[in-house]
Design brief:
Number of strands: 2
Structural class: alpha+beta
Number of helices: 4
Number of domains: 1
Shape: globular
Strand content: 5-15%
CATH superfamily: P-loop containing nucleotide triphosphate hydrolases
CATH architecture: 3-Layer(aba) Sandwich
Order of helices and strands: HEHHEH
Strand order of the largest sheet: 1-2
Length: about 120
Amino acid sequence: MIVLLGVIVHELLSSGVSLIVEANFKRETRLFAPLPPCRIAQVHVSASPATLRARLLERGANRHPVHYDREAANEIAARAAAGEWDPLPLAGVLVRIDTTHGFAADVPARLAEALAGTNVALF
């Protein structure tokens, strides 16, 4: 599926279409290299590994079986600590959103502030 996503991203950018791509990308993802000429704003949302682990353990057992949050909590925390989901090595604006102490209601304002002065617009 990631390969198909890469094809779609390249096709749209080559056609001059703006887009948002969202997924749980790993740092070594090469989906975006090389990209057609474009302006990039990467929004990296993270939390401390301990916070991620705690959130996964707190999730209800009544979730759909595809969600194995509790079983994967330790593994996900370790992988986050190892930097597996650090920002991608992309040229452009990088906006970091750390949710360790909660989800910020002011994320749109923080994004607008981070992108001020760039040629990347947030609508």
